[in-house]
Amino acid sequence: MQKILDRLDALEKQNQALLEEIKTLREAVKAEDTQDRITRAEDRIAEQAQTKVSTAQHLPVSLSGMILFDASQVQGTQNSNFQQAYGGYGEGAPGGAATLRQSIIGVTVQGPAIAGGGRVNGSLSMDFYGTANSDNVFRIRTGEVSFDWANRSITFGQDKTVIAPLQPESFAHVGVPALTGAGNLWLWRPQVKYEERHAFTANTGIIFDGALFSTAESATLVPSLPTAAATGGPALQARLGLTHNWTDQTRFAVGIGAHESHSYLAGQSLPSRVISSDFLFKPLAWLELTGTLLKGENFANLGGLPVSLASTGTSLFSVKGTAGWMQLALPVTKRLTFDAYAGRQVNASRDLAAHQIGGTFVYAGNALYRVGPNVVLGFEAGRENVVYANHTLILANRYDATLAYLF
Question: pTM for this structure?
C-alpha cells in the first residue's frame, strides 16, 4: 500500500510539472503570435502609407482606370467629304494606326453622411481622346456629384442620356463608343437627374429616372445652311425600368424612355423627340442579350447620326428616323468571352436630299481573353455600311488588336 501511495505522489508531481511546462509553452506561443500580428499590421500600415490617396477633407478616395493599347487597320472606300463631316461617326480613314489615347483614368470619392441616412458621393472619369497634337488632349468623359439615399438619388454631372443607358462591350471603341451613329446614343452631356428605386420583392424592383439634359446642338446639322449654328434649351427626359433577378448570375431588365426638346435655328423652333426601349436578358450564366430601340426625329443632338434637320427651301423641318442595336455576349469561361453586336440607323428618305446620308449599318465581333484578373487581350473585326439617299454606298472594314490593363 505504501509503495502505491508513493507512486501516486510521484505521478502527481510529474503532472504538476507538465502543467507548468504547458503553461509556459502557451505563454510563449501567445507572445510569438501577438508579435507576428503586430509585424503584419506594421507591414500593412507601411504599405498603405505608400499607396494611399487622400484629400484635404480626409475623405476616402479610390483611383481606377484603364491603360489601353489599340492597334487598328481600316480598309474600305476612301471618301474625304464623309471623313471631314462625319469622322467621329465612322471607322476612320483607311490605313493602320496604334494609340494609347483611349486610356482612361478616374477617381471616386465617398463623401460625408447627410440627413435621412444618405451620403454624398462623387466620381470623375477622363481620357486622352481630345484633339490630337494640341493642348486639349485630356478630356472629361463622365462625372457626377450625387446625393444618395436607400431608395433615391439626386445627381448633378455629365453622362449618357437616361433614355439609352446601355452600350456594346468593345475595347476597340472606347474614345468614341461602338455603334456611334448606328443606334447608340452615346454623347456624354451635362444633366441633373433624379432617380427613384423601389423593390417589390427581394428579386424584383422598378427604377424611375427623370432628367434635365443639355443637348449637343453642334451636332444638329443642316447641309443647305453649313454656316448656321443651332442652339437649344434643356431637354426633358424620363425612363421607367423593371428588373428581376432569377439567381446571382441570371437576370432580366427592360426600360422605356422618352425625350423632348427643341432646336432653334434661323428663327425657327424645331422639335427633337425620341421614344426608346432598352433590354437586358441573361437566362444563363454564359448567355447575355442586350440592346436598345429608338424612334423619333432630330436626335443627332443625343449622339444619333446627322443629318437631323432638313430644308424645303423656305423653311426647316426635323428629319425622322429609327435606330437600334443589339449585342450577344457569350462568357464561355471566366477568362474568355465572345461578343457579337450590330446596329442600324435609318433616316426617312423623303426628308433627305440626294447627297445626304440615308442610313448606317454596322456589325462586329470580338474575343476578349483575361490573361490575368485585370489584364484583357482582345481581337475585334467589324464592317461599316453608310448609304446615301441617292444609294451611294461607303464600306469600311476595321480590325483591332487591344491590350487593356485595368486598375
Answer: 0.81
